[in-house]
Amino acid sequence: MYGNDQCKVSNAPVPEPMGVICAAVYLIVMFVFIPFPFIEWIGMDTFPYAKLLAILSGLISISTAILLGFADDMLDLRWRHKLLFPTLSSLPLLMVYYVSGNSTTVIVPTIVRHLVQPFVVLPITINISFIYYIFMGMVIVFCTNAINILAGINGLESGQSLVISASVSLFNLVQVYRFGADENAAGFWHHIISLYFLLPFTACTAVLFYFNKYPSRVFVGDTFCYWSGMTLAVVSILGHFSKTLMLFFIPQTINFVYSIPQLFHLVPCPRHRLPKYDAESDTVSMSVAEFKKSQLKTLGSIFITICRSIRILYVEEFEKDGEIYVRMNNLTIINLVLKFFGPMHESSLNGLLMLIQMLCSCLAFFIRFYLASLFYDV
Ligand code: UD1
Ligand code: MG
Predict the structure, then answer these.
(1) Fewest Cβ atoms closer than 10 Å to its Cβ: which of 26, 176, 234, 345?
(2) Which atom of ligand 1 is nearest to the CA of 3?
(3) CB under 8 Å, gap of 24 or more: what pairs does 305-312 form?
């Protein structure tokens, strides 16, 4: 099985999906590891079943995401399957979250409490019950797809996952340190369980990145994208930091929001939106979608007008065979970066996107540890 590297002169075949090998190694490591955190309790009456259940349910979700990704690589699934299957995969995890009596309360920002104080006195925390489960389900569906749609140049899928997983690992380590190794504190265990999943994942991804970076010797495939997204979503749910996880997904969130018109077919969407390769200069530049103006839906035209006026979209109109056509850049942040910085070498583009991902991680830490304390009593 192979894919063709579309940003190379040779358009050479590259083995795909190699994510499945890393995922297999990861599952072997995780399965062998299962008894170790529980050695001290084996044979005792006070065995921490809830913790074992949390780890097992996380592994079910991750295993089924790998299966979904592999099916996508084999069969090129339709969008509705890509939304339905992760929702099903999330059910065991959410069920365990529910029966383990985990919290569904959110803290009300101090500023909101002060603003509405003259009219109503809000409590410090509100239990949003089933809405919290809907939110967690949405986090899982979002994460499993977000990495897959920010893809198409060498090293991008594995690189962004590496930066996010290393950042989230660091976040967990900081939290473990803050709990001061008080093993009985619930928060301590939540972050330790996250690390059990994340450290082997980061290691496997680092190896995959080594082979996937420019010039790619392997392609990661959709198997990797779904596995990666699901692992990050699972650790955030088991670690009780799903809202914080979204901060580490800032580039993916912007890419998703920017992509919405093409994902929901308000404007036509080609099969591949990766950048266009120019063999003469060995650079990549933004790729474009061309379509008849009459094909455009009302919401699509509104989107184009707004984006054009704030200069985040390249649009051109031209006439062909007596019809007006529209040419605009494909709606990914990869093309947006190329619109602002101009054509560049594929490895420089990936380097720039990695830098943006790292800066967003720094921003995430700043918001979580500094700004949050201004808005919340944490
Ligand atoms: C997603 C994107 C699509 C993008 C593709 C690239 C959406 C809705 N879909 O589709 O726009 O073009 O990922 O991965 O945003 N490839 C390269 N160089 C790379 C990586 C991939 O040329 O560094 C090409 C290869 O031909 C490879 C193919 O992309 O075989 C993989 O595409 P696939 O993962 O099947 O595409 P989707 O995930 O469906
Ligand atoms: Mg893909």
Answers:
(1) 345
(2) 30
(3) 312/258, 312/336, 312/339
